[in-house]
């Protein structure tokens, strides 16, 4: 892995989040929206770049003003977008987001099928994939062809090149015609992953086990080397061959939880990158990586937007050494 050019390459969806400025109001009631760069795997790419990792993104947007806005946004965060393709036939997806009084988001996807789902396997930059230490993906791009085949192709190329495979299912049942197909594909890709991050809700959906200790044990049997079960404000549970444990989340004044899970993944990948060639053999190091993940997620909730709220490495380190120093 030392010869790889990029620390992280992500493949999947890139879209515009239109975030309601009326907190506690439904989308029907909302009067104003803030435009922001979004999409789970794109958020992870931006988060990794903010944390000092050399990062690239592979995906597709429309050849329209929103697509160019997204390209410029990722570049501004330091993400290499040579793998981004522009469609003349399909538009850039817009996702309208409303926040309830607890800052929990609700989503409405507009304009599907959109350009992100039209990425073809032949459009995947194989050289870029082979250059990655880590390839990260989710299930949104598995919800429809040709993006499904493109995502699977990228994973296959990365595995053959010796990359670590990071997988956050980020299950969105409403984006699939058949919810059972969503769960089937989410489960089918687990054996491909070295690092699996799921929420406790997703564990319940996938294996009917909500308890994080039991869920992590079951997921490890399916192939991943490291499993993370996130627990929202209660932090996360991790398990690998070297050890396991719970890491609590720091207390913050949450304004918007959109993208917190993506910030968690970015913080985790930053931490794992710091451990070198055999990260899963170091239980203490993995715990520290999960602490970084929980801290990054917490910081992201303190501002509106998924990408715009992502911390840089100096901010993350300062928080962990200062106001978050007591987190266990």
Structure in words:
- The protein has 328 residues and is α/β, with parallel strands linked by helices.
- It has a single domain, classed as Ribokinase (UDP-N-acetylmuramoyl-L-alanine:D-glutamate ligase).
- Helices cover 34% and strands 23% of the residues.
- It has 10 helices and 13 strands.
- It has helices spanning 40-50, 65-76, 126-130, 147-160, 179-188, 200-207, 212-220, 260-273, 283-300, 313-321; strands spanning 6-11, 15-20, 33-38, 55-62, 80-87, 94-99, 105-110, 132-137, 164-167, 195-199, 226-230, 236-240, 243-247.
- The strands form 2 sheets. Strands 5-4-1-8-9-10-11-12-13 form a 9-stranded mixed β-sheet, with helices on both faces. A 4-stranded mixed β-sheet has the order 3-2-6-7.
- Helix 1 (40-50) crosses helix 8 (260-273), helix 8 packs antiparallel against helix 9 (283-300) and helix 9 (283-300) packs across helix 10 (313-321).
- The longest helix has 18 residues, at 283-300.
- The relative contact order is 0.14.
- The mean pLDDT is 93.
Q: Mean pLDDT score, rounded?
A: 93
CATH fold name:
UDP-N-acetylmuramoyl-L-alanine:D-glutamate ligase
Count of DSSP helices? 10
Quick one: CATH class? Alpha Beta
Number of strands: 13
Shape designation: globular
Fraction of residues in helices? 25-40%
Biggest sheet, spatial arrangement of strands: 5-4-1-8-9-10-11-12-13
Instruction: Please state the CA-atom Rg, rounded to the nearest Å.
Output: 18 Å
The CATH architecture comes to: 3-Layer(aba) Sandwich
Major sheet attributes? 9 strands, mixed
CATH superfamily: Ribokinase
Q: Which percent range describes the beta-strand content?
A: 15-25%
Unreliable spans: none
Order of helices and strands: EEEHEHEEEHEHEHEHHEEEHHH
How far apart lie the N and C ends? 31 Å
Total tally of structural domains = 1
Sheet/helix structural class: alpha/beta
């Amino acid at each position: 892995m030392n010869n790889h050019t990029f620390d992280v390459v992500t493949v999947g969806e890139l879209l515009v989040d239109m975030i309601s400025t009326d907190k506690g109001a439904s989308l029907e009631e909302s009067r104003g929206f803030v435009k922001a760069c979004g999409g789970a795997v794109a958020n992870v790419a931006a988060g990794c770049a903010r944390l000092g990792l050399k990062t690239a993104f592979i995906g597709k947007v429309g050849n329209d003003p929103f697509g160019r806005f997204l390209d410029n946004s990722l570049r501004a965060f330091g993400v290499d977008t040579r793998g981004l393709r522009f469609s003349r036939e399909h538009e850039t997806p817009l996702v309208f987001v409303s926040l309830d009084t607890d800052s929990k988001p609700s989503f409405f996807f507009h304009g599907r099928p959109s350009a992100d789902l039209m990425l073809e396997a032949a459009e995947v930059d194989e050289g870029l994939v082979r250059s990655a230490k880590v390839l990260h993906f989710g299930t949104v791009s598995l919800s429809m062809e040709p993006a499904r085949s493109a995502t699977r192709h990228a994973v296959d190329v990365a595995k053959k090149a010796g990359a670590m495979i990071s997988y956050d299912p980020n299950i969105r049942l409403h984006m699939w015609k058949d919810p059972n197909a969503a769960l089937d594909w989410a489960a089918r890709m687990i054996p491909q992953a070295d690092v699996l991050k799921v929420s406790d809700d997703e564990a319940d959906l996938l294996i009917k086990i909500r308890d994080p200790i039991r869920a992590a044990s079951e997921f490890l049997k399916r192939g991943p080397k490291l499993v993370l079960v996130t627990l929202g404000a209660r932090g996360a549970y991790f398990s690998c061959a070297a050890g396991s444990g719970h890491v609590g989340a720091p207390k913050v004044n949450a304004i918007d939880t959109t993208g917190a899970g993506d910030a968690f993944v970015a913080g985790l990948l930053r931490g794992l990158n710091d451990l070198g060639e055999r990260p899963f053999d170091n239980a203490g190091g993995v715990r520290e990586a999960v602490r970084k993940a929980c801290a990054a997620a917490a910081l992201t909730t303190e501002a509106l937007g998924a990408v715009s709220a992502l911390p840089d490495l100096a901010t993350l380190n300062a928080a962990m050494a200062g106001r978050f120093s007591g987190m266990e």
